[in-house]
Amino acid sequence: MAAALAAGVTGCAGWGGGSGGGGPHSINVLMVNNPQMIELQKLTADHFTKDTGITVNYTVLPENDLRDKASQEFTSQAGQYDVATLSNFEIPIYAKSGWIAPLDQHVAADPAFDQADILPTMTASLSSGGKLYGEPFYGESSFLMYRKDVLDAAGIQMPAHPTWQQVADIAAKVDGAQPGMAGICLRGQPGWGQVFAPLTTVVNTFGGTWFTKDWQAEVNGEGFRKATDFYVDLVRAHGETGAPQAGFAECLNAMVQGNVAMWYDATSAAGSLEASDSPVKGKIGYAPAPVVETASSGWLYAWSWSIQQASTKKDDAWKFISWASGKQYEQLVGSEAGWADVPAGKRASTYTIPQYLQVAGAFAQPTLDAITSADPDNPGVQPRPAPGIQFVGIPEFPDLGTQVSQEISSAIAGKETVADALDRGQQLADDVAAFYRSREGQ
Questions:
Q1: Could you report the per-residue pLDDT of 305-315, keeping only the tens digit for each?
Q2: Tally of CA atoms within 13 A in the half-sphere of 58 that contains its CB
């Protein structure tokens, strides 16, 4: 598993190890450079360290670099970092390999943390074998964002629970509604966490799957093909300019700048759309992730804290996690940085804070609904061999998904057919499936 994960998630970059932390009351934290984490870094010394006497030494990296370094660190159990931000993709895999420490005893000894307040879907996605291995810092699902004013001007009402066909019909009607405005933005950029984040949710609700329960690859199966044909046709006909290279950031910019009328993507985008300086603030409506054959289809993702098994400072590491993912931290961010910056999507209590709801009222409930309705164990119409909605929870998926995504981006660019792209993807998926069938004695 270590070899597979290193091949799939890392770039094989190396560095020196060492003991965790730089002193008896310090810990080392490896962290992704998302805005919410940068705010955490700013608040640590004057609040956490001042209150506990524990110094936190941060290493802050872009997402891809973070994944590389975390994989190398945890697979080797070098002990250089006590805590790292991992997602609900890595945590169950790392837990099964014994690379991260269970948190149950820490939670039991810290009733003020209030684990019951963490959204159940988050707790489930960060657990393995009945034990808890991660605490979310913030979480997200996916939903449809649309320009209410544009649809109103066209005499269109967004359904309360839209289907993908209804979304495609609306995209056709509002394409060109304003100068330079496309009907919809859908990611087309290669990457298992780029185009395949939204596309795999479409595959699920169209009845497709990457693998059957008994590890048969289905990448060129009927459901996968119908979903991909639909997605590629929609973005080519009514999607954003430069779709083959458009990821989350490009679609966010297109929505903010008024260049698209709709966008299906992460719920976390809403905070930027509703920011005080956003040109589209107050103009956006939010609808559940579109469906076909399933009741819901939104994904589930959480940047979360885990403790390295090799750490000798687990108690201090837990104190940091308890602070960073605790209720009082959200109050601190709200008062110090503003309520729009609160790391939401993880606690039920967040959605009862009046100050937060005042700034997030347009998207708070749709976000909560999307997260609580997500089911990583049953995201489609058939049983799955591994958990995951927008990904397959196996170490090989980053490499597999990235390779197949390159074919899909090529199809969006018109350089190959969807059928050819999926046939190539099927060959890659067959190799992964064969490994698991042999391992399970099939």
A1: 999 999 999 99
A2: 17
